[in-house]
């Protein structure tokens, strides 16, 4: 059963609950918090404009920022208000800030306060889901990057309202599915980073990938003591060797990874190879990402650090699909669905 789509919904005169991914990096400038990157906000444009074009009475943008504690209720760093100026520029319209219990304007686009200020969100509390559902008539999931979370605004609210996938979310599914629905081979997965859950994802990729290249801090976490030179051509999983300070992969590892990359016809890139932000530790990321960009293959990249790196090296145009998801992308690729998608079926 396919998930329902935004285009299938009657929006005329309706209040539309748009679950967005608002968890963008925040920096302080002249005593004001502002987003340092806006790519996750930019994906809202088509969905919000579609809702407006279909005469929706109100578009309520809902999401979270960071992991606030109860003591952070008045910390403006975690308030969605800081996103409004940037999002107004992206959408080309005014946005009114509101809290859950505040009355909404008759028409327009509104921004709800950070829903992680409420304990019921992450607990997937049914009563909190009812409270959220009460502010809208229709639900749209435009938060692919957090759709692997079983939270109230992701899986609870869709049970209570007519629902559908947002426009960008539909594109995520369409493009990522190309990696496991008759992909061009060889299919190479390059998975790196510092989170140990990626080791489990690497294992899951063994079911359909031809080669899995592992870098970042993962080789250290896996405690594999094997030279990159000792891997045979037939071995599916290649684990990089790290430099002495463990902030990058070795030159030999870079060369071996490039050999596999240039053979590939489909490449999934998830994670940076080292501490690429610092000169002296960026060689692995710079050279391997550059090799992926030059490869004659269908190329997918996702995750915050990966997207920041391709922006730094000006490689975005060389990828066929740039996913806003990190963990969500990996979970979708290995499980072929997400809780947030299942909730819309």
From TrEMBL:
The keyword Kinase applies. Gene3D superfamilies: Phosphoglycerate kinase, N-terminal domain (3.40.50.1260). InterPro entries: Phosphoglycerate_kinase, Phosphoglycerate_kinase_N, Phosphoglycerate_kinase_sf. SUPFAM superfamilies: Phosphoglycerate kinase. One of its GO terms (cellular component) is cytosol. Pfam families: PGK. One of its GO terms (molecular function) is phosphoglycerate kinase activity. Its EC number is 2.7.2.3. ATP binds at residues 198, 277, 303-306. It catalyses: (2R)-3-phosphoglycerate + ATP = (2R)-3-phospho-glyceroyl phosphate + ADP. GO terms for biological process: gluconeogenesis; glycolytic process. Keywords: ATP-binding, Kinase, Nucleotide-binding, Transferase. It is an enzyme of class 2 (transferase). The keyword Transit peptide does not apply. Belongs to the phosphoglycerate kinase family. This is Phosphoglycerate kinase. It comes from Candidatus Woesebacteria bacterium GW2011_GWB1_38_8b.
